[in-house]
Amino acid sequence: MSKAFVAGATGLTGREVVRVLRERGVDVHAHVRPDSRELDAWRRRFGALGAEVDTTPWMDDAMRARLTALAPTHVFALLGTTKKRGRTSGHADTYESVDYGLSAILLRAAIACGSRPRFVYLSSMGVTATTKNPYLAVRHRLETELRASGLPWFAARPSFIVGERDEDRPLEKVGSAVGDGLLALVGLLGAKRMRESYRSQTGAELAQALVRLALDEAPDRVVPSDELRALR
User: How many domains does the chain have?
Assistant: First the structure.
């Protein structure tokens, strides 16, 4: 039986991944920060789906021990943060500490755990080796380590992900709305591939694609946004 460990389970995409995995009959362990103020609510929400909440601390030894004991077949790294969250929490360099740092802890634990789980990494459109954008740069760094990990893997690079988040991301909402409007016009003018590559998708749509790719044992590769949308 497939067994999945989902990090970033409380996010817009993560909560949908938990739901879709349970619909597919997968044994799911949904990670929630042990200091989360909403821990009890997430226990109820995920418990109603038949998933187990995991609160392993974000430390190398603890995460490695947990994944070794769990022996998952799939590990989902769906972690991310925003500049606003970093300012309000008092932490600096959140892309480095969360988007890269926690994902790297999870990757090292997956490598060391012995069960060779398929590692599903939620990256982003626009990732390149030469990017100067800090958000994209840390994702390129993790993708590079993932390729060298020896694990089965894929990295998803969606465009804007939209839906009802627990935190407000006004720039994302405006960007996706304006972008989708422009892309609709571009599509009418004949550039349909560009429209499909950049158009936003919901967390639920993305979750369907991620789970399908993970469970169908797709080849190790980077999956662009147009392919992710076609798999929803």
Answer: 1
Rounded to whole angstroms, how far apart are CA atoms 128 and 112?
28
Q: Show the domain range for 55.
A: 3-164+202-230
Distances (CA, A) of 140 to 19, 95, 226: 28, 12, 19
pLDDT in tens, 209-223: 999 999 997 789 999
β-partners of residue 28 are 4
Pairing between β-strand 3-7 and β-strand 27-31 as defined by DSSP bridges: parallel
In a domain, 185, yes or no: no
Mean pLDDT on 156-168: 72
**Mind listing the pLDDT tens digit for each residue in 65-108?**
999 999 999 999 999 875 444 443 444 448 899 899 999 999 99
Query: Does residue 159 lie in a domain region?
Result: yes
CA 97 to chain centre: 16
β-pair partners for 75: 5, 119
Would you say the pTM of this structure is higher than 0.85?
Answer: no
Has residue 170 been placed in a domain? no
CA distance 50 to 29: 10
- 180 belongs to a structural domain: no
Domain of 67: which CATH number?
3.40.50.720
Q: How confident is the model at residue 159 (pLDDT cuts 50, 70, 90)?
A: confident
**Secondary structure class of 41 (helix, strand, coil):** helix
